[in-house]
Amino acid sequence: MMITRVFITLLPYSGATKNNAFVYQIQMGGTTTTTTSVLFLPSFRYKTMRNSARDLSNRTQQENLMISRCKSGLLILDDALGFFDSMTKTKPIPSISVFNHILGAIANMKQYPYVLSLYKQLHSFEIRPDVCTLNILMNSVCHLSQVELGFSVLGNIIKRGYEPNAVTFSTLIRGLCIEDRVAQSMELLSKILENGYPCNEVIYGTMINGLCKTGNTGMALWLLREMERKGNLKPNIIVYNTIIDGLCKDRLIDEALELFSEMISKGLFPNVITCNSLLHGLCNLNWRKEATYILQNMVDCGISPDTITFNILIDVLCKEGKTSEAQSLLEVMLQRSVRPNIITYTSLIHGLCSSGEWKDAMRLFNEMVGRGILPNVVTFNTVVDALCKEGKAREAHQLLDIMIQRGEKPNTTTCNSLMDGYCLKGKMDEATTVFDSMLSMGCEPSVVTYSILINGYCKNRRINDAMKVFREMTLRGVLPDIATYNSLIGGLCQVGQVGSAQELFSNMHSYGHSPGLHTYSILMNGLCNNNCLDEAVNLFQEMETKGVFPDIVIFTILIDGMCRAGKIEDARGLLNSISARGLEPDVKTYGAMIGGLCKEGLLEEAEDMLMKMEEKGCLPDDLIFNTMVREFLQWNEIKKAMQLLHDMVKRGFSPDASTTTMIVNLIASDGPNSKYLEMFHKFFPK
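^ Pentatricopeptide repeat-containing protein At1g63330-like, sequence as received from the core. Prediction below:
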């Protein structure tokens, strides 16, 4: 037959041999004792159902009962295997259609290896398969990512004189798409059409679904038009839903809405799947007005929102910080008897944790468990991360233990969150314990894992331990990223090892990293803090030659460094050059300059700069006021200091501990009848 050219063209081998036992068996329809195929299961005995002994006179009735159970979708694997065993012991052996129902039920359970093993047993009982049997077999091997064996089954169908049907071809197309072999699946469709085989909505629908799932939505839309033009077929709601969903996932919402309108104009009524796809696409683009319109029309048309609908809306509300509305929507779900699932609760818990509503998050977590919905690794990770950010690493660790007890495997993200929680609390030994236990839990440390540990050591000034971890990660083949370098450079500078920090900075290129603004700012800040101003200036100049243009943070660091080094003229010149670069000083820039001017006794200029920054719309913060009050007191400008203090309090700021101490010392030094006492009471009422 002509169709043989189809599968021969696509098969990556010329034919089956006895060296490939299972392929050979499928094509030749015989049996073999060789079990070289990886798909073979060890032989096993199937347990029969309890009370399986039956009167042969009731065989037809029992077969019908069994078929009914298979169709119900409630059958479990052991019962299905029991049915098979029972049917093979019946005399006479039932027709192949009975066995097809059993094989089909097992395939629906996704227990594909069992289908293969049972098919082998059919041969031993000399039960001849029909095209339905072979289609089920083909479906199973394709789902096991063995589409080549699927083509071997096609050869068996043809050899036995059967006509391949729509299920046969759609199964092969689906199998190719599962393996991301879209071009070959399109080639197969083309061959089917060329050779005159009937191509119905199922085949086109399967191909369109495969294209959409592999991100080829444009090709799917083209095939929809070809289906109508060449095949003279009318796409059904499933085909339209598939393409609409693909377009929405590709953020092509206008095209999706256009197809939605076309579908309605052709008399196809949208269902909840259609509406969910559109809602999800609209919400992803923040088209809230259009999403509300779709939702309203959905309800008006009698399309009941399902769990997915509510999940989409709850997720959007949580991401917008509208957790109260999201929780209200959960109540609506329950009132409508729409059962929330793990995604519903995980979205809500994540939203509440992100908003700092920890108590509500834990309440929902407990409610979820109480409803019999077991948290998955994503849910646990959300709660563990939130606990750690709240400074409750120990409680997070207890939750990790519960997670393991319940059989839910933690992943690298879980361990990273817990390690970060311990590092934030300065508990490096506990963080290291989690790190050491990762491999035993089946978690592979990532670059993020190593970076968290390195950052923790650096923050706690344990730079030798940080460098040890850095060397270990490179030996294990985990390449450091920018975050790793930033932590180490900052840590080395913090303990005064500026030379090592500069060397590490220079070596970044050998690992394929180019320092960006943040890395430059860390090193520059470290140089300034370690009295290496000349090297900081050189670094500033180097940035521009390498095409990294300084931002206001870099300028502020250097201005502050110059001021602290007493180079006020250089700082003033650098400040004046900022505007020419298209930047504007921020409150920190002005704060650094004002602090430098005050230290040099240039108090009037500092006051002028305070006025200047306000004129430019940059309002001073409490840090600037506290700095100026202290410096004015230091230079014995008591009256001006008190005026600044008055202005500061009027703006809603409070003196910090250092400023308060200086004022108290000033009053104490002036004696019990200090003229400053009344002013002090004014600013600090009892």
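Residues 497-683 form a domain with the Serine Threonine Protein Phosphatase 5, Tetratricopeptide repeat fold (CATH 1.25.40.10).
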